[in-house]
């Protein structure tokens, strides 16, 4: 480990050839998929946090977009086909050298199953979510952001409906 010329951080530098081996954060992508007001959750069958609940999410693969990665993870973990929508949350997880990116998504046809990395998969209303058993803070943040956004959109809708001039 040494600071290469022109850099300001220690890097793994090969003593024989001088090649710099950068270690950068890994990107985790996922989605909060909704079907008729319910959110798709998976109970993890793998470590870390086996037995805890999460939205479908995992590491990006080389050559895929963020959205394609989120859709792939939904298929792998919950056998769910989703239409990935807008960006929901970006969370930096410094201790794990990760960046988590979550999207809003629609579960297509309401179909899902138990993927290889899941013990159980189900659709949950906000009040039914096992908040104390959510696997990671970034997932809880994305879920709470999703529900808050949904509430604010409904409030805006109701407000604009009340104040819209009557159509004649």
Plain-language structure description:
- The protein contains two helices and nine strands.
- With 168 residues, the protein is of the alpha+beta class.
- The strands form two sheets. Strands 3, 4, 5, 6, 7, 8 and 9 form a seven-stranded mixed beta sheet that branches. The protein has a two-stranded antiparallel ribbon with strand order 1-2.
- It has a single domain (24-162), classed as Nucleoside Triphosphate Pyrophosphohydrolase, CATH 3.90.79.10.
- The N and C termini lie far apart (75 Å).
- The longest helix is centred in the C-terminal third of the chain and has 27 residues, at 137-163.
- The protein is 24% helix and 33% strand.
The second-level CATH architecture is Alpha-Beta Complex
Could you name the CATH homologous superfamily? Answer: Nucleoside Triphosphate Pyrophosphohydrolase
| CATH fold descriptor | Nucleoside Triphosphate Pyrophosphohydrolase
Distance between the termini: 75 Å
The number of distinct structural domains comes to 1
As a percent range, the share of strand residues is: 25-35%
Helix content: 10-25%
Major β-sheet profile: 7 strands, mixed
Q: Provide the CATH top-level class.
A: Alpha Beta
Low-confidence segments, given as residue ranges, are 162-168
**Tally of strands:** 9
Number of helices: 2
Mean pLDDT: 92
